[in-house]
Amino acid sequence: MNTITLLILGLFILTNGAVIFLLFKRQTGNKQVDGQNMQMLNQNIQGMQERLDKVSQGLNDRLDSAARVIGAVNKELGSLQEIGRNMQGLQEFLKSPKLRGNVGEQVLKQMLGQFFPTAFYSLQYKFRAGQIVDAVLKTEDGLIPIDSKFPMENYQKMIRAEIETERVKFLHEFLKDVKKHVNDIAKKYILPAEGTINFAVMYIPSESVYYEIIRDDLDLNRYSMEKKVLFVSPNSFFYFLRVIMMGMQGKKMAEATREIIDTVRGLQKDTHKFADSLNVLNTHITHTKSAFDRVATDYASITGKIERLDRVDEDNLLE
How big, in percent rounded to 5, are the helix, strand and coil portions of the chain? Predict the structure, then answer.
């Protein structure tokens, strides 16, 4: 039952009470009301009072509930205002290119640390000419330069623009920013003479900025491929690192397999050598046995001759 219904019910009860009161007053002008009618009137008035009390209690309960709801809404509005202030603070924080760069470098550091031991990558790697890249991955094929770029200023102006001409203007400025980053990375960090492989990675810490860059109609992917620079976002960088890690593990398995094969081949050679030595030893043993048999035969023959000689001497002596 809503508030309007309760109000209508209250008015209805009051109207009925007024009608009864007027009838009663009209009757009393002519004659005295007997005790039974008075009792009925009192009962009706008491019933109306109880209904009015219930209506009043219902209204009070609804007002209390509405007050609680309004309080909760005010609290939520306060929380939203605090979030708004925090978001505004974050936006002010990200207006500084240096601070944006620091955020990107920290995220880059954490992701590299999740996949590789520190021996497989270096942070703030310095080349001989003095230029410093945010990170390099160390692979058997060479160093993979990784640099974090956060082209936010003209991107934010573009998405906030309400007029199409302004949006197009800031889009062109945004494209110029991205191409400048690509050119800088290609020129400064792709240095095969210093051990890098023939491409570099441009890490973009924002998914929304990344998807704007790789739109087909902007043709930035073709431009970056010509410069041998690969765009990655936090999500795609995760898969890039996983592929590199699996490649390293595959090479380790291949090296371990080669070591096992080389060891087995060495064992085979050693087995052949041992078999040859065993055959030689067996031949020597056979020859030794034959010589021993001959010596034993000769010894038996000499012993027999000595025994016969002893018997001849004894017979001659007896005669």
Answer: 80, 10, 15
| Tokens describing residue 19 | 């009608």
**CA–CA distance, 173 with 177 (Å, rounded to integer):** 6
- Note the pLDDT of residue 134: 92
Nearest C-alpha neighbor of 152 from the set 92, 201, 195? 92
> Quick check: is 309 in a domain?
no
Please tell me the distance from the alpha carbon of residue 222 to that of residue 202, in angstroms, as a whole number. 14
Do residue 9 and residue 129 come from a single domain?
A: no
Distances (CA, A) of 48 to 13, 29, 41, 256, 267: 6, 24, 11, 97, 111
**What's the whole-model pTM score?**
0.52
Question: Residue 9: which domain range?
Answer: 1-25+44-56
End residue of a domain, out of 216, 240, 264: 240
Q: What is the pLDDT of residue 102?
A: 60
Cα dihedral angle (290, 292, 293, 295), rounded to 10 degrees? 120
Q: Per residue in 51-84, pLDDT tens?
A: 766 766 766 777 677 677 777 766 666 555 554 4
